[in-house]
């Protein structure tokens, strides 16, 4: 190869390297802008809301007097709704993903189902609220209850859980399945003992993303009739008498943190806006706590697999 051809190759390589550096610099700049914007918003919210964070703020009901208002009914409602959402979406989503990836035949019907699941992940949340209003509130007769809200948000995050679980299962090397089959394992034994344990980190990531989206949703919850002002708590799930567990709370009226924040920000007084900022901090801490719990569970499962 002559020197002219070598020179052209060097120029081409150097030109591509320059474009790589430019792209990396632009990407780093965009990341920095996004991080600074998010940090500024969180700091501004913390400066406004931190003075209101106290024990009374967590134990008081909402009030027309901003100094006496609290988020007791809101954070209890959010917690109970998230319990129903997780109980409804995680088992169904993981099971559906396992069936589609490991058992379902590859035909036209399966392809249509897969396309629809992917598209449902991008449907606006208000559509799920309208669906739940007709299905859970009226058709099934659940009313404007915690059960209706949890099932609504479960439908909302179900496509996210299914897609993330399928991607996690696909990432498992086929050699693991083949080794299990070689020693006489059944398809279900291979899936339960090998595929699911190794794919749990990816599954937990999808669950984290879905639950983080659900806890901050407002539109579908308002659509099914969540209260914006509530001064009582639902019945306790645990009782002192046999059978000790009560499910009356599932049919109780409720409110959640985003709706409480919306109620306060719609008022003209600056003190209510300060309460909304404090509630936003609490909602952020609740989301981070959920993520931390999921990461801890994922770490423990990974450690068990390694042993």
Spell out the key features of this protein:
0% strand; globular; MetI-like fold; 307 residues; mainly alpha
Mean pLDDT across residues: 84
Strand content: under 5%
Any idea what the shape is?
A: globular
Strand runs, count: 0
Please report the distance between the alpha carbons of the first and last residues. 55 Å
The helix content is over 70%
Low-confidence segments, given as residue ranges, are none
The structure class reads mainly alpha
Protein model, in words:
The protein is mainly alpha-helical and 307 residues long. It folds into two domains: 3-51; 54-306, Orthogonal Bundle (MetI-like fold), CATH 1.10.3720.10. It contains eleven helices and no strands. It has helices spanning 3-49, 55-59, 72-103, 108-120, 125-139, 146-170, 174-182, 187-215, 219-223, 257-265, 270-306. α1 packs across α11 (270-306), α5 (125-139) crosses α6 and α6 packs across α8. It is globular and about 85 Å long.
Q: Could you provide a short overview of the structure?
A:
The protein has helices at residues 3-49, 55-59, 72-103, 108-120, 125-139, 146-170, 174-182, 187-215, 219-223, 257-265, 270-306.
């Amino acid at each position: 190869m002559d020197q002219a051809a070598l020179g052209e190759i060097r120029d081409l390589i150097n030109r591509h390297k320059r474009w790589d550096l430019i792209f990396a610099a632009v990407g780093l700049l965009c990341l920095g802008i996004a991080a600074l914007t998010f940090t500024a918003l969180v700091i501004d919210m913390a400066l406004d809301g931190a003075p209101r964070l106290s024990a009374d703020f967590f134990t008081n009901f909402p009030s027309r007097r901003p100094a006496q208002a609290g988020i007791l009914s809101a954070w209890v409602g959010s917690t109970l709704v998230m319990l129903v959402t997780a109980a409804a979406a995680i088992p169904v989503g993981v099971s559906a993903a396992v069936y589609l990836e490991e058992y379902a035949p590859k035909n036209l019907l399966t392809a249509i189902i897969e396309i629809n699941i992917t598209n449902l992940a991008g449907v606006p949340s208000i559509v799920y609220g309208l669906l739940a209003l007709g299905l859970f509130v009226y058709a099934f007769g659940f009313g404007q209850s915690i059960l209706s809200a949890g099932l609504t948000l479960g439908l909302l995050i179900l496509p996210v859980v299914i897609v993330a679980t399928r991607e996690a299962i696909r990432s498992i090397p086929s050699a693991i399945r083949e080794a299990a089959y070689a020693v006489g394992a059944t398809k279900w034994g291979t899936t339960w003992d090998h595929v699911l344990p190794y794919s749990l980190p990816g599954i937990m990531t999808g669950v984290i993303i879905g639950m983080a989206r659900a806890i901050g949703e407002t539109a579908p919850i308002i659509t099914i009739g969540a209260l914006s002002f509530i001064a009582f708590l639902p019945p306790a799930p645990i009782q002192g008498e046999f059978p000790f567990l009560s499910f009356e709370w599932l049919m109780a009226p409720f409110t959640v943190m985003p709706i409480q924040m919306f109620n306060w920000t719609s008022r003209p007084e600056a003190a209510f806006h300060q309460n909304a900022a404090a509630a936003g901090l609490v909602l952020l801490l609740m989301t981070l706590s959920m993520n931390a719990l999921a990461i801890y569970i994922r770490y423990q499962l990974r450690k068990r697999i390694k042993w």
